[in-house]
Specification:
mainly beta, six-stranded mixed beta sheet, 11 strands, three-stranded mixed beta sheet, Immunoglobulin-like
Length: about 170
């Protein structure tokens, strides 16, 4: 029997794999990139209690970490610079933290030279109590662009490893 959580994972993966690239209508956000911005990001975070007061989204670019504002519906918007490797970190109390890597190199390859790319995706946070003491081995997603044509390239993984030792397992 498929559970509602399974359907949420399937929907999130479909959204992640269906990332689109369009001209950005709005480049406003907490991070102010150089003039040659390359990628606008719109994302949604899902947590079990649907309250985003304690949810944090952090952006790391070139060693500088900034907090990204998140709406009361779990949406965040930002613009990333060209030719950068960006780490997005997601956290919410009682949930496993997640990371998504975004590589904006080649975002302006081929026919995309003069436009800001726009990527949309969702992140579903997993309750720690449902994960039996496991944690993610690394980033759960990688978003990049093909060097020859500039097409979006997405890699998604949910590889788990045993979390900290001496922690009781909760089922």
């Amino acid at each position: 029997m498929k559970t509602p959580t399974f359907h949420l994972h399937t929907a999130a993966l479909a959204v992640l794999l269906g990332c689109s690239t369009t001209v950005s209508a709005s480049g406003e956000g907490p991070y102010t990139p150089p003039k040659d911005d390359a990628v606008a990001v719109t994302g949604w975070v899902h947590v079990e209690d649907l309250s985003f007061d304690a949810t944090t989204v952090e952006l790391e670019v070139n060693g500088e970490v900034q907090r990204v504002p998140i709406s009361n519906m779990g949406r965040f918007d930002l613009v990333l610079p060209a030719d950068a490797e960006v780490v997005l970190r997601f956290a919410h109390p009682g949930h496993l933290p997640k990371e998504v890597l975004v590589d904006t190199h080649h975002a302006r390859a081929a026919g995309f030279r003069d436009e800001t790319r726009h990527v949309r995706f969702a992140v579903i946070m997993e309750l720690k109590q449902n994960m039996a003491g496991f944690t993610y081995m690394g980033p759960v997603g990688n978003i990049g662009f093909d060097k020859d044509g500039g097409c979006v390239a997405v890699d998604h993984t949910r590889k788990l490893m045993v979390g900290r030792k001496n922690q009781p397992m909760v089922f």
